[in-house]
Amino acid sequence: MTDLPELDPVIHAQARLRVTVALAGLRSADQITFPRLQQLLEMTAGNLSTHLRKLEDAEYVEITKAYEHRTPVTLVRLTSKGRAAFESYTKALQRLLDAGT
């Protein structure tokens, strides 16, 4: 039997996986507003904030507070570390799936 790969526990939680997938779909320098991400994922603000904090603590996402026309806006983007972690996660998941066949 082959050694089964470990899945990154930061990404593996369902909500954080959904966040990471959504952010990985953007170009590396692109950001998305918090409300738009919330809408895409159909998550409450509190739930999304909690999962973003975990991803931010792992340095997988960067959160920027800015102003647009004097209105505060929160921008979210996947960091290069987060993108690399997601790529490793998907490769590990594929190896895990391949091991089951």
TrEMBL record:
Return the protein name: Transcriptional regulator
Q: Which Pfam families match?
A: HTH_34
Q: Where does the Winged helix DNA-binding domain lie?
A: 22-97
In its UniProt entry, the species of origin is given as Amycolatopsis echigonensis
Q: Which SUPFAM superfamilies match?
A: Winged helix' DNA-binding domain
Cited InterPro entries: WH-like_DNA-bd_sf (IPR036388), WH_DNA-bd_dom (IPR027395), WH_DNA-bd_sf (IPR036390)
Keywords of this entry: DNA-binding
Q: Which GO terms describe its molecular function?
A: DNA binding
Write out the transmembrane intervals. none
Domain of life of the source: Bacteria
